[in-house]
Structures are given as C-alpha cells and as structure tokens.
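Holo model, beta-D-glucopyranose. Inputs:
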Amino acid sequence: MYLRKTILATGVAFSALATANFAHAEPTAEVLHWWTSGGEAKAVASLKEDFEANGGTWVDSPVAGGAGDAAMTVLRSRVLSGDAPAAVQLKGPAIQEWAEQGALADLNDVAAAEGWDDVIPAAIQDVMKYEGDYVAVPVNVHRVDWIWANPTLLAKVGADSAPTTWDEFNTLADKLQAAGITPVAHGGQPWQDATVFETVVLGLGGPEFFQSALVDLDEDALNSDTMKAVFDQMRKIRGYVDADFPGRDWNLATAMVMNGEAAMQIMGDWAKGEFLAAGKVPGKDFICAATPSENGYLFNVDSFAMFNVSGDDKVAGQKLLAELIVGEKFQETFNLLKGSIPARSGVSLDKFDDCAKKSEADLQAAQEAGGFLPSMAHGMALRGHLAGAIVDVVTAHFNSDMSSDEAVSRLVEAVELAKD
Ligand code: BGC
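Output:
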C-alpha cells in the first residue's frame, strides 16, 4: 500500500518511493493492451479509473484483435524502435522471453512492500518472476474450457443443460441442426480454432494426454490415435458452424448466442464479460458449463509486464500500476467485469456469480486431480513459435478437407521443425 497511501495522504501525486528515488514524479503509464470488446473495455476502464483516482496519468494504447496477436506485433516494433510502452498486457512464457532480452523492469521493491509472495499462488508467481525477480503482475485467472449456451434454443430440442460428454455434444448439435438452428457460434481466426481444439484435446485425451501433447510436446502423444480422434471431432465441429464464420471476431460469435442466432460457443470466460456487459443474467439468459472433461481446467492468466523505460514519472507510474493491480479492490472490481476470477488470495467471491464460483470450485478440484493445465491457445503453455506451429496445423485442418491422418502427420512434423 505504500505508494497509494502516500499519494492519498498528501493529496499530491508522488509516493514514498518517489521521495527516495524520484522526487515529485507524477506517475504516468502508457498501457498497451488488447481489451477492446464491450466487456473487455469496461474491465480495463476500471483499471484506468483506479489508476487516475490514485494520482496516475493513463495513456491508453489499445490494439484491437482477440488473444493479442496484433498487440504483440505492435509491441515488437515499439521495442525495436527503442520506444517501449511502460506497461504491456503479456502472458506466460512470453514474459520470460522478453525478460531474457533484458527488456523488463524489476518490481521487487513493490513486491516486498506489498507482500506479493504471500498472496500470489506459487504457480502464478513462477510465471510472473524471471530468475527470482518479479517482472510482471497477474490480473486474473481466466478459464478457457467453457461452453456458453442459449437456454431458449437448447429447450427447442428438449435440452435443459449443456452436454457433459463429447458424444452428447454431437447428439445435441445434430438435433439443433435438424431443427434449423446453428449449433456452434464460431469465429474463424486461428486462435479461436486453437481454443476449440485444446478443449477437445483435454476432453478426449484427458489431462495427462493434454500435458504430454500440448505442454511437453511428446511425439508419441502428438502422433497418436487419440490425436486423430481429436481431429475427427474438430471436423464434426466444423460441420456445426454457420457459413459466415471465417474471420469473425469472437465477441460477434458470443453475440450470436446472446441473440438466439446460434446455440453454443466454446470460448474462455471473457465471453461472460460480453454477456454481462449486455445486461444478461447467468443461469437465466445464458448457461455456462465446462466443456466435457474429467476434472480438467485450462487456465489463462492475464498479466502486465513493465518494460524498461526512463523518466521518474514513468517508473513511478509502473510501480503504482503494479501495486494497484495486485490489490484486493482492483482484483474484485476488474474480475467482476472481465468474466474471470481473482489471481490473488484473500478476495471474497461473494459478489461474483455462479459461473465464477464454479470456476473457483473446478480450479480446486482440477488442482487436486492433476487437471489444472496451462492453455496452449492463449500463450500459457508454450513459447510463441512452438504454439504457432501447432495452431497453423489446427487452422489448416479446420479450413480444408484435410484428413485426420494427414493433420496428425503435419502436426508431428511442424512441432519437430519448431523444436530445432
Ligand atoms: C485474453 C483475454 C481476452 C481474450 C480475447 C485472451 O487471450 O487472456 O483477456 O479477453 O484473449 O481477446
């Protein structure tokens, strides 16, 4: 609390740290992020408000594009031209990659003052630290393996809940299709194809298979009958989407479920942020259910890394922002809007809905059962070039009539090449 308390106590925008190191610096932060959809924009606005209420000047740098592919391209060019933004939405192994380049600032002083080691779960600390030093702060825990369904459309074919096995999923989708309803709302962008793919890997293969195939990149797992069955299921899902799916943004696919144009979307719980932003009520206007799996949970932790910048105002801004992000108040406010759950301990879920409570309960169960796994599609499991190799094959298969055999051999080959 040291930065915030001093600012609030004095009413002036300088901090305890500023007195020592950056006399009278006014905290300023340029924040690069990709939160531009309805729910995302509301959530990031809550961070901006918090920052400004604590004396900070926020310079907004949004780069539209789901899952951040476009934002990462902008980041690379900004860093190359020696003009890194102060705070960047960054995740998983990408944090380590930028830290290896010497691009990230260390946040150990804020971490020590705020006791982060006691409130950030160890598994998340590992992602936020480089060689023992904090270089990033976690915002939330998003779950990827969800189905978002329209209960009115399900009821039209006599279903009152989402499917609990992939066979049930197919049977339900067939019935919906026969009734003239688009079973699956999908946006044909590589990361969305990969999002669906990894939930199928988890469901059909189980947690151990997911770990071997998509985290450890084990050749036997990649080159297996199970992986063929995964591609078979992807082919089925391809048959359940509407003709206009290519290039569609994920939030437009969510809107299709909301508006009764499609029955289900497989997407992370940022989709819930869209339903909530549109005033929809979980359990009434929409259903949240885990995609079929045995105690699986694919996690995706959004975080901000602080890049090396010069100027006392910018450094003060990074520290203030980091402190606020890990704070209990922000973690509650932001996650209520974003669809995710808090990344730190000590935040009550009392104000959260049943989907968030299910996420937390399933997370605990998955941790006990060994099913708590990093999302490959959302940059938590693999470095960019390795994930990219997998995603390319998944997309090529989804968008053609490639056989499952061919997809598996391409997958094995692509991963081997990327590993070298
Ligand atoms: C991010 C979410 C974001 C989603 C869609 C995910 O990779 O973790 O915060 O809402 O992409 O852009």
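Residues 38-53 form the longest helix (16 residues). The chain has a mean pLDDT of 95.
Archived with the compound record.
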